[in-house]
């Protein structure tokens, strides 16, 4: 508790800076470990922290699960959201769903088969991705409008979306946890020599490449993927981390409505057989409002949400304002910003040590000195 208020953030995820004195009393500076607890006169501050760096400018930064807090001996500010890089010990892959797609790995490029709706969806999702990305560049090369852009296609399957993005000139990495899917994608790519230098496929999950690809991509695409992951928030956080500042995240998925259950599962899977039984779990569907909330809370600003409607009789998709079934979303990673420090955390230097101060300069914030 601090001044009667609990210092916490979403399940204990919080970052702080350890000072050496509270309420005017000087205390011994604690040794920084992964857990640090300060207690004096029933005043406690429990933090889960990890040191980031301590450089010649006497800049101390600590990193936590959700955000980064920076303090300096002369300038005071903090930045958010900053998330730690996830390790392979945490996975968003649903092993039970992997088994479902394993049996279909050889059918990705059958345009009349179970993946026919995804082939047809390219008529909507490719222009949706292309047009929104072109809004971010001043000039583009005719015939290869996405030339120079790096795109990550998460859950690429057999490469149905990866290949058309590569043909637009982008450098694309397609990842999928199922090796059989990647083999199918690589085999099909080999028929087009133009794609050899533009597309790379890897058998892995998103969280496995977060550390090596941090802030690498101009765009991340997760088309028909988020309704299959086991931890959506972790998945979105990983997307955020691999995006460059100002980069775009594209998602297509299914709304969680009674209509989506009736048409998406009962009709499409159990009656018409448009998709194999067990492909979707209604409980994993997500509404545009909830998805937007998760995106915004993780530093991604939603730009566009558009409904998509599939006609099973014609086999074509078209855009609509109705998002009660399928929809596409475009979000942009916020650029690094600095914000005023809350009153409880304004820091000043006294006798060479950091001290907590309950007062704050109302004049705004100062630029973070590097």
Describe this structure in words.
With 370 residues, the chain is of the alpha/beta class. The chain is 21% helix and 27% strand. It has 7 helices and 17 strands. The chain has helices spanning 95-102, 116-134, 162-167, 179-189, 232-242, 258-271, 288-297, and strands spanning 21-22, 25-26, 35-40, 43-48, 50-54, 60-63, 68-71, 150-154, 171-176, 199-203, 217-223, 243-254, 300-311, 316-320, 326-333, 346-350, 353-357. The protein has an 8-stranded mixed sheet. A hairpin with a 2-residue loop joins strand 3 and strand 4 (43-48). The radius of gyration is 24 Å and the shape is globular. The relative contact order is 0.14. Residues 1-88 and 337-370 have low confidence and may be disordered.
Most strands sheet: 8 strands, mixed
Helix and strand element order: EEEEEEEHHEHEHEEHEHHEEEEE
Morphology call: globular
Number of helices: 7
Strand content: 25-35%
In helices, the fraction of residues equals: 10-25%
Can you list the strand order of the major beta sheet? 10-9-8-11-12-15-13-14
**First-last Cα distance:** 31 Å
Global mean pLDDT: 76
Structural class: alpha/beta
> Uncertain spans, ≥5 residues at pLDDT below 50?
1-88, 337-370
Total beta strands: 17
Radius of gyration: 24 Å
Summary keywords:
27% strand; 8-stranded mixed β-sheet; alpha/beta; 370 residues; disordered N terminus
Secondary structure elements and pairings:
Blueprint: E1 21-22, E2 25-26, E3 35-40, E4 43-48, E5 50-54, E6 60-63, E7 68-71, H1 95-102, H2 116-134, E8 150-154, H3 162-167, E9 171-176, H4 179-189, E10 199-203, E11 217-223, H5 232-242, E12 243-254, H6 258-271, H7 288-297, E13 300-311, E14 316-320, E15 326-333, E16 346-350, E17 353-357
Parallel strand pairs: 8-9, 8-11, 9-10, 11-12
Antiparallel strand pairs: 1-2, 3-4, 5-6, 6-7, 12-15, 13-14, 13-15, 16-17
